[in-house]
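Before the break, one more example. Copy the sequence into your notebook; we will annotate it together after we see the structure.
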Amino acid sequence: MFSPEWWHWMVLGLALTMAEIAIPAFFVVWFGIGAAGVGVVLLLAPGLALSAQFLLWAAFSAALVWVWFRHLQPRTVTTVGTSAAKVAGEVGVLVADITPDSRGQVRFQKPILGADAWEAYADTTIAAGERVRIVAVEGSYVKVEKAR
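Here is what the structure looks like once it is written out:
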């Protein structure tokens, strides 16, 4: 029966690590490093059974994946879910007239909470083309006032 030697695991580790170039998920590399780890263990303990080698590879790979997802993976920071307090005071241009009885639309130069145009309302009448400032975010609407 075939029993891989230490260098077989090293070649497998190298091949899996190089496969990460073709599969840019940053996931296969952990299996490659796990295989190289088995190669090092097999170099130190050459009589290790084939089943133990595969279990060791699975354990190394699982541990490395866990460490990556738990501690090393970079956190993506987005503005989705940002509190209304962070966008209060942002200034945009009113696209459609607003009266106390009707809503209009305000457009911002940069996206606010993921959108560059928002439905808006105000307590006073404001004409289209005026600059307005966000007072509050209420659901899918922004309350605005005329910018000074």
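The CA atoms of residues 93 and 128 lie 8 Å apart. The chain has a mean pLDDT of 85. Try to locate both features in your own notes.
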